[in-house]
Description:
Blueprint: E1 17-19, E2 29-31, E3 38-39, E4 44-52, E5 58-63, E6 72-73, E7 76-78, H1 85-97, E8 101-112, E9 117-126, E10 137-143, H2 156-171, E11 177-180
Parallel strand pairs: 4-9, 8-11
Antiparallel strand pairs: 1-2, 2-3, 4-7, 5-6, 5-10, 8-9
Amino acid sequence: MFDRTVHHCRRCGTAVEQRIPDDGDTRVRAVCPSCHTVHYVNPLLVVGTLPVWHDGRVLLCKRAIEPRHGKWTLPAGFMELNESTQEGAARETDEEAGAQIEMGPLFSLINLSVVGQVHMFYRASLLSDRFAPGQESLEVRLFAEDEVPWSELAFSTVRMTLERHFEDSRTGVFGFHHMDWHPHER
Length: 186
């Protein structure tokens, strides 16, 4: 299980106690014995897009940053405060690929409970085949299914999303895919 334990109160700096709060909660939380603030540790949202060109090719970015420097990924990143999941996905697509898109529906939602994350990918239609990769990408390219560098993908969730996309492409019916990732998966 992923651990982001809080050790000190974010409000007053006092060492916290790990206990069930007195407010009826049923889970152990970080509780400040001084100011009584209860600190919650919640999953992080990773939001991104599955950008598709009119001929069916998908846009992938080669990472210029860790983790997984030099590996290929869909444009995605951590959601920021004060933005919706769609806004975050569009921002990440612009930052990483400089791609012009029309946002489509949510395509995949993948729970990564062991690392405290949820990954969400929206289908997106590319409006242009001209890209301006940002500092986080070494390269940006369009790939047909048989051209995808499957062994060079950065994350299992990207692989899972791409596999569902190409399966749906063969049937012509694009659904919503809700999945759970487990550490033993590739």
